[in-house]
């Protein structure tokens, strides 16, 4: 009996339940600290220095302590801020198994999401510019900073001048539109200008209506300078394609409810209000559904307020075609302030480092006009989102580079 009592009262031989719980807590805490230390070691190792990584989600910048580099090599960005930048519900982001951390315990502000999920599951466009540092740009057409609809960006490439007809470019013809649509294009650039008798017609310039030989004949006679509606409608473009007035185009496209049209209006600045009022009225009368799927291509930002007074256009983009180099930075700042998300330019300005500047601001670089697949691939690696094209397929490169 004495032995039993000694055993019961000797703390060296028994451990109360509370002590066991304390030991278990210490073990768990030690394990957690080991895991945390391992994570910190991974983040600070020379092979994965998080300080050199910058991620831009629709123009929202994450770097340093705002990022996590997981053991799996994934880059994780703050989930709540990313959802806000992409204008998507936080609840549409993945469950715990894809979120770094414990959102139910720590709350939304401590949830992180892998970049690969944004790219693969949410179909966001991503580009990685590694020439200077590791810079990742992630975007989706619509976001918190724009009043416009850019959902059409998911359609890919733009059929330049309505695309090709029998491999011929710049026709803006009925045949070009139908052929491009059958190829899968849903984005079309349309060139428009006025005849001498004030009718809007689909043409890039009068020269493109003819074969080179015929144009030389017209030049020698001086007849190439004067174009009326009757004269325009009486010809066949290059002796075989059907010319269209804007009214013809509006009627044709009533049967194509899934297209978007980028309008390239020539010579419109001088009589802008009259030109776009007439354009608006044509679509209101013939094809009102397409009016909200028109994308105005702007050359002059000072005309923005005038255009918005004519109609609440659903989408706009800006082209640098007529912007002098010295004015590019100011123009881009203005584009951003107006909420436009696309700037288009060509080879003349491609070497100015515009891509990185635009992407950091959440603006998508578009490029015109590109038909060489190899060059297009290189341009995409440098951040070009999509192209105006005569011959690239509509799904070329898609949205992920």
The strands making up the biggest β-sheet line up spatially as 8-16-15-14-13-12-11-9-10
> What is the β-strand count?
16
Total helix count?
Answer: 15
- End-to-end distance, in Å? 81 Å
Task: Report mean pLDDT, rounded to a whole number.
Answer: 83
How would you characterize the overall build of this protein?
- The protein is 35% helix and 17% strand.
- It is α/β, with parallel strands linked by helices and 401 residues long.
- The strands form three sheets. It has a nine-stranded mixed sheet with strand order 8-16-15-14-13-12-11-9-10. A four-stranded mixed sheet has the order 2-1-7-6. A three-stranded antiparallel sheet has the order 3-4-5.
- It is elongated.
- The chain starts with a helix and ends in a 12-residue tail after the last strand.
Any descriptors?
401 residues; alpha/beta; nine-stranded mixed beta sheet; four-stranded mixed beta sheet; 16 strands; disordered N terminus
Task: Provide the fold topology.
Layout (H helix, E strand, L loop, with lengths): L1 H8 L7 H28 L8 E5 L2 E4 L4 E2 L5 E4 H8 L16 H4 L5 E3 H6 L4 E5 L4 E6 L18 E2 L14 H10 L3 E8 L5 E3 L9 H10 L7 H6 L11 H7 L7 E6 L6 H15 L1 H4 L2 E5 L5 H7 L4 E5 L8 H11 L3 E4 L8 H7 L3 E4 L5 H9 L4 E4 L12
Parallel strand pairs: 1-7, 8-16, 9-11, 11-12, 12-13, 13-14, 14-15, 15-16
Antiparallel strand pairs: 1-2, 3-4, 4-5, 6-7, 9-10
Helix pairs in contact: 9-10
